[in-house]
Amino acid sequence: MSQQKLIIPDPLSALDKSSFAYKTIKDRLPVIIVKTIDFLHRHRQDLHKFGGTINKPNEAEIAEIETDAKEFISHLTKLRKELETNKPAQLVEVIGPDCQFCPSDDVDLWNQALEANKLQDGSLPRWFESPWLLMECYLYRRIKDAALRTRHLKCYDPFVEQKHAACLASISQMNAVARHLLLVEEAIHQSPKGVHPSERSEFGLFVQLALWANKADLSIGGMSADNIQSQNLSSDIRDAIDSLRENILCDNMSEFWFKFQAIKNTLRQRKADATSLEPIYIDLVADNSGYEIFVDLCLLSALSSMLDLSHESNLLKFRIHVKRMPWFVSDTLKVDIDWLLNLMINHDSTDLQRLGKVWEGNLEKEIWEIHADKFWTLPHDYSQMQEVAPELHSTLAKSSLIIFKGDLNYRKLTGDRKWHILTPFRVALRGFAPAPLVALRTAKADVVVGLEDISIFARINNNELPRDWMISGDYGLIQFFDPL
Ligand code: F6P
Ligand code: MG
Fold first, then answer.
1. Cα–Cα distance between 411 and 480 in angstroms, integer?
2. 439 phi and psi, to 5 degrees?
3. Close Cβ partners of 342 (under 8 Å, ≥ 6 residues apart)
4. Ligand 2 centre and the CA of 218: distance in Å?
5. How far is CA 463 from CA 374, 456, 469, 472, in A?
6. Closest residue (by CA) to atom 12 of ligand 1?
7. Could you tell me which residues are beta bridge partners of residue 251?
């Protein structure tokens, strides 16, 4: 029998003027740069008030920070001009001294990726001609580059104001989710067998909450704290989640559930077999900060309680993978989790306080670990992980389950290519399969695969979905793949 060779489609790029890639490069990215400049200008004298890495500067340092802000702005202005005039990218430079979170160990990998994508005329990649994923990631690496060229702002997050405002606008929703989680945990605690009476339904609820928390992200030009607030789910969580059910275009919830049950059985066996001390790992490859990471941590808490409420065995660990530099505006940094926990612990709501303290304890006891590998802020897609980041790949290979959150992770899983929507998810992964994985993503880019349900395909084919269904964030995917 002849083996059919897989034809891998081209990457998405702004070359196609009707694409969302074109709209992003032409309109959205300049808006992101301008908003960043505006923030640095408005707060040039009090950038330290947003916390983070510049603590209590004295008067002389405040003056130096203002000079830094101006320098930062001039690099961003230059970057905007380069983008708007379609200039070729520049190789990334080592700028010392390093930022404490981001050593310059990514420079060679960045430059290899830029060189590998040279255009036919021999020039380095250009904004409107090269792969969208590469150029969009490059934007954030250049923003980091501008920060590194300053004295006090090397580790500064220029998106911090937007992130904090969006998170504060979602507090009441966070409170409602926290309340529900605590009730679920209480019910597990009270049940003689440590099993929630509606475990499967609660599992589904937290998975869907995590899915829809990805609806809003701050890299969508014009998205502000107000928009985020208006996207809040109503106070009856279950009704709100049920009403979104038909917007899930691929729903592998059952496969995900059965995998979860298998993990539960393995954990039970390991507990019974006292000789096995190897913990079970569940990995979260996080996306946005604020409400989204809050709900993602609620999902981890719910999974953890359903698996092993007491945590007495020490056989269950969660690894939370975050970005190490400001990324796609709203992506989670470690400092964002610290800020969130501080907000929760000091909040008036006793539910948020309680949860915040438990989560802080999970981190202290290393039941939860935060990892910030450099691979997550490279432009490479995940089929390249084994070659580019073999250590990260083998860490993930020890996982029982990897949860990938959000749009950008999905683009990197599928290589951000022009796949047909019926292409199986497994095929679009192109060999990336370190462990069982699930993608929870609302569609905000024109790459969607794995639409297994023929009636959904028919709805799309008959134009029954809005024209912008791939990019509006209104439609979601729960896609599961188990290499075994
Ligand atoms: O701008 C590209 C893009 O992938 C959008 O399509 C999306 O809005 C955003 O970046 C990132 O989304 P997410 O935070 O869900 O990864
Ligand atoms: Mg994001």
1. 15
2. -105, 125
3. 356
4. 8
5. 41, 11, 10, 15
6. 407
7. 478
**Directed axis angle between helix 291-308 and helix 350-364, to 10°?**
70
| Residue of 217, 289, 291 with the most ligand 1 atoms within 8 Å of its CB, for mutation | 217
Sign of the CA dihedral 235, 237, 238, 241? positive
**Is the C-beta atom of 403 inside 6 A of ligand 1?**
no
Q: Indicate which atom in ligand 1 lies nearest the CA of residue 20.
A: 6
Which pair of structure tokens corresponds to residue 169? Answer: 């606008």
Question: Taking Cα atoms as reference points, which of 330, 273, 296, 315 lies closest to residue 400?
Answer: 315
Distance of CA 45 to the CA centre of its chain: 31
Residue 246, classified by CB atoms within 10 Å of its CB into exposed (0-12), middle (13-18) or buried (19+), is: exposed
| Ligand 1 pocket residue status of 150, Cβ below 6 Å | no
Determine what percent of the chain falls in helix, strand and coil, rounding each to the nearest 5: 50, 10, 40
Per-residue pLDDT tens, the chain, 484 aa: give them.
446 778 999 999 999 999 999 999 999 999 999 999 999 999 999 999 987 677 789 999 999 999 999 999 999 999 999 999 999 999 999 998 889 899 999 999 999 999 999 999 999 999 999 999 999 999 999 999 999 999 999 999 999 999 999 999 999 999 999 999 999 999 998 988 888 889 999 999 999 999 999 997 776 544 455 454 444 555 589 999 999 999 999 999 999 999 999 999 999 888 888 766 789 999 999 999 999 999 999 999 999 999 986 766 789 999 999 999 999 999 999 999 999 999 999 999 999 999 999 999 999 999 999 999 999 999 999 999 999 999 999 999 999 999 999 999 999 999 999 999 999 999 999 999 999 999 999 999 999 999 989 999 999 999 999 999 999 999 999 999 999 8
The secondary structure of 381-425, three-state, reads CHHHHHHHCHHHHHHHHCEEEEEEEHHHHHHHHHCCECCCCCCCH
Which ligand 1 atom is the nearest neighbour of the CA of 24?
Answer: 1
Q: What's the CA gap between 129 and 125, in Å, rounded?
A: 7
Of all protein residues, whose CA lies closest to atom 13 belonging to ligand 1?
407
CB 93 within 8 A of CB 107: yes
- What is the rounded distance in angstroms from the CA atom of residue 85 to the CA atom of residue 104? 28
Residues with CB in 5 Å of ion ligand 2: 217, 287-288, 328, 331
What are the CA-CA distances from residue 6 to residues 424, 428, 457 (Å)?
A: 12, 10, 22
402-427 as b/e, with b when 16 or more CB fall inside 10 Å?
A: bbbbbbbbbbbbbbbbebebebebbe
Pocket test for ligand 1, best of 12, 134, 219 (most atoms within 8 A of CB): 219
